[in-house]
Design brief:
β1 (30-35) and β2 (38-43) form a beta hairpin. Helix content is 25%, strand content 39%. A 6-stranded antiparallel beta sheet has the order 1-2-6-7-8-5, covered by helices on one side. A two-stranded antiparallel sheet has the order 3-4. The chain has a single domain (7-148), classed as Hotdog Thioesterase (Thiol Ester Dehydrase, Chain A, Roll). It has helices at residues 7-20, 22-27, 60-76; strands spanning 30-35, 38-43, 50-52, 57-58, 85-95, 104-113, 117-126, 139-148. The protein is globular and about 50 Å long. The longest helix is centred in the middle third of the chain and has 17 residues, at 60-76. The chain is of the alpha+beta class.
Length: 150
């Protein structure tokens, strides 16, 4: 299990990711879970997220944004100073199947944190994080972040 964050730190990060980033606010992003090195984020479905109206399927850019943001949130949850910064260096997203017209939820965890670099892995699911491990995600992601400690 992931160690919990101090309540004040969790509040700061939740506010940052839900309200402090205009694009996240526009998409209605919600933080479901934040713990040290772990984040679960949700984007509620809305028709404007459609990328392929013939299916309909979610736009791939929304999936990429969710992987990147969840990975960044997991990194921020490892840091203790509100002035520390995290920025994306590299992002890889593997789209495994079309994302249906439903809420998207992404789990991300830090797999390596150094003094200046962090690496995360993420899984994006449709609807909810499954309790059955045989359920395939919509997308998988891995990201590298630059860490600036102040």
């Amino acid at each position: 299990m992931h160690p919990p964050l101090e309540e004040s730190r969790e509040t700061v990060l939740r506010t940052l990711f839900e309200q402090g980033i205009p694009f996240n606010r526009h998409l209605g992003l919600r933080v479901e879970t934040l713990a040290r090195g772990h984040a679960v984020l949700r984007i509620p479905w809305q028709p404007e997220l459609t990328g392929d109206p013939s299916r309909p399927a979610v736009h791939g850019g929304v999936l990429s944004m969710l992987v990147d943001t969840a990975g960044g949130a997991a990194c921020f949850a490892m840091l203790d100073n509100d002035d520390d910064r995290v920025s994306t260096v590299d992002l890889r997203v593997d789209y495994l199947r079309p994302g249906p017209a439903a809420d998207l939820v992404c789990t991300a965890k830090v797999i390596r944190l150094g003094n200046r670099v962090a690496v995360t892995r993420a899984h994006v699911y449709s609807g909810a994080v499954p309790t059955d491990p045989s359920v395939d995600p919509v997308a998988l992601g891995q990201a590298v972040y630059n860490i600036v400690r102040r």
